[in-house]
Backbone:
């Protein structure tokens, strides 16, 4: 994914110290259960007598049953995950359709796993993921969120991985919330609803990769094509590092 400059410039000696084996302990860590146990969720819930089913949960702005929370979150737009401050993957909003192809695939047996376990050890994924986690843990340069678009090279698909620092009531780091969504359907709906349209910006210094790999009519005119070619050379010269989602295989 294309990472922002402030993130790219971070000190590797610092962010690589992130413990993706989750050997530490969070305030809410459930002890005594193997983090890699595929039945971690059921065992952990039983150990802490977790509310479930029709049990009510009092939230800061509402009262819902566990079932209602599950139904709402499973039907919420986008894919969501939560990783705690000990780098343990604790939750994702499982799709209502079991056959749905997720943008950032996750499975129920992964819940409870460490960040190391849910990331493939290929293409420097783990160091890049550690960078994002450490940046949000420390609020690097004052940032509390990270936008990571996936460069699909398609003008009609822009998959965004959005990472948000989660804090407790006292402002202490409590983990990371991730939201993954293809933004194009939302933009398309906005344009259709407001009567507006998307056009190629001839003066843009980004986006050549998307335009050159999209529909032939997405880029028209000799001047626009020349600009796209110029941008392509610029992007190749300053090609950004990539990173996968915090819970993506």
Residues:
């Amino acid at each position: 994914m294309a990472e922002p400059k402030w993130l790219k410039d971070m000190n590797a000696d610092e962010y690589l110290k992130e413990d993706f084996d989750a050997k530490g302990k969070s305030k809410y860590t459930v002890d005594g259960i193997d983090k890699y146990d595929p039945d971690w969720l059921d065992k952990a819930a039983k150990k802490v007598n977790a509310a479930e089913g029709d049990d009510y949960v009092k939230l800061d702005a509402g009262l819902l049953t566990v079932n209602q929370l599950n139904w709402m979150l499973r039907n919420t737009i986008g894919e969501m995950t939560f990783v705690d401050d000990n780098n343990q993957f604790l939750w994702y909003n499982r799709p209502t359709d079991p056959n749905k192809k997720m943008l950032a695939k996750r499975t129920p047996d992964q819940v409870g796993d460490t960040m190391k376990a849910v990331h493939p050890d290929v293409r420097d994924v783990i160091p890049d993921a550690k960078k994002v986690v450490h940046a949000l843990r420390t609020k690097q340069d004052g940032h509390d969120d990270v936008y990571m678009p996936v460069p699909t090279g398609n003008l009609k698909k822009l998959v965004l991985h959005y990472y948000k620092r989660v804090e407790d009531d006292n402002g202490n780091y409590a983990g990371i919330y991730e939201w993954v969504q293809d933004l194009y359907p939302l933009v398309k709906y906005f344009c259709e609803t407001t009567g507006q349209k998307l056009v190629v910006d001839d003066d843009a210094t980004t986006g050549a990769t998307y335009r050159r790999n999209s529909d032939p009519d997405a880029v028209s005119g000799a001047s626009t094509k020349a600009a796209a070619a110029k941008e392509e050379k610029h992007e190749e010269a300053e090609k950004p590092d990539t990173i996968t989602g915090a819970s993506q295989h």
Observations:
- Strands lie at 56-59, 62-65, 79-84, 89-92, 145-149, 159-167, 173-182.
